[in-house]
């Protein structure tokens, strides 16, 4: 028996620290999510049954689920709802692309230059604090009632998180690593491409995840206020007709579009930033 084994055997088992895991943390994830969904539906049904809220405003879960199947059938058969979903998807995709390109460019300007940080960033923050929904009529006046105004509003709402993520990523490089690159005679461009951008990728993708959620909001708000033929217009018409089950079902399908956009970004992060270990929250949302 070695000396290390003798020392280990002499230590009482009670002194070895073990992390206590509660029973709720040992429950499988799918069981927890299913139980939470069932509890939510039960509470919803109780509120509907005792009429705490008018049935005109709040439909029952069964009515909403039934309408979900109706909308799903309409989508699968290629009816008018599929065309509306395709229009909204185009607005989301184009708005997200513009937000990424614009946000990345401005983020590099802010994070890499003193001019961008001192002169440009205050204006960007001021623009971000404005009620962006109020700009919808302006985009409609400038770009018309077509898809262009919705794309512009979606990009306008979603671009700021990309700026912040990119700028924060460029500042994430260690000072010693920067000094090493400077000592080796690396140019500013080489330091940016070979050091700052790779290290800053996790921050950049965090901004993309926020933008992926906000871009759907921008597209739908644009359809609410500027007309159109997308899902936002269908929700507006259903709400005007007090068809609340249809409103709920359309909102759920729109949330699936937002989740799909988020998961695509999360997949790209795992694919291109494979060395970065995500936090528990990020990993859970990406699954």
From TrEMBL:
Annotated ranges, domain ABC transmembrane type-1: 85-265
Residues spanning the membrane: 30-50, 92-111, 123-145, 151-173, 211-227, 247-268
Subcellular location: Cell membrane
A Pfam family annotated for this UniProt entry: BPD_transp_1
Primary location class: membrane
Record-linked InterPro entries: MetI-like, MetI-like_sf
Entry's Gene Ontology cellular component terms: plasma membrane
Biological processes per GO annotation: transmembrane transport
Annotated PROSITE patterns: ABC_TM1
Keyword Cell membrane in record: yes
SUPFAM superfamilies in alphabetical order: MetI-like (SSF161098)
Membrane topology note: Multi-pass membrane protein
Keywords annotated in UniProt: Cell membrane, Membrane, Transmembrane, Transmembrane helix, Transport
UniProt similarity note: Belongs to the binding-protein-dependent transport system permease family.
Protein name: ABC transporter permease subunit
């Amino acid at each position: 028996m070695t000396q290390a084994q003798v020392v280990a055997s002499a230590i009482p088992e009670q002194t070895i620290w073990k992390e206590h895991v509660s029973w709720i943390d040992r429950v499988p994830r799918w069981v927890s999510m299913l139980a939470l969904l069932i509890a939510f539906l039960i509470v919803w049904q109780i509120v509907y049954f005792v009429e705490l809220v008018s049935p005109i405003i709040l439909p029952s879960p069964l009515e909403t689920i039934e309408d979900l199947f109706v909308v799903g059938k309409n989508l699968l058969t290629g009816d008018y709802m599929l065309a509306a979903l395709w229009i909204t998807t185009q607005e989301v995709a184009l708005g997200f692309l513009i937000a990424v390109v614009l946000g990345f460019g401005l983020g590099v300007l802010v994070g890499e230059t003193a001019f961008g940080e001192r002169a440009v960033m205050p204006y960007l923050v001021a623009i971000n604090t404005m009620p962006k929904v109020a700009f919808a009529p302006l985009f409609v006046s400038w770009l018309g009632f077509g898809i262009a105004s919705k794309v512009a509003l979606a990009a306008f709402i979603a671009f700021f998180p990309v700026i912040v993520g990119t700028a924060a990523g460029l500042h994430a490089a260690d000072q010693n690593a920067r000094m090493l690159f400077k000592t080796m005679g690396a140019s500013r461009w080489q330091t940016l491409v070979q050091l700052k951008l790779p290290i800053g990728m996790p921050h950049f993708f965090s901004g993309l995840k926020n933008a992926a959620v906000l871009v759907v909001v921008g597209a739908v708000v644009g359809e609410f206020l500027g007309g159109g033929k997308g899902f936002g217009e269908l929700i507006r018409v259903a709400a005007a007709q007090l068809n609340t089950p249809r409103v709920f079902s359309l909102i759920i399908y729109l949330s699936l579009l937002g989740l799909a956009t988020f998961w695509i970004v999360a997949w790209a992060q795992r694919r291109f930033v494979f060395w970065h270990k995500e936090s528990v929250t990020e990993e859970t949302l990406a699954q």
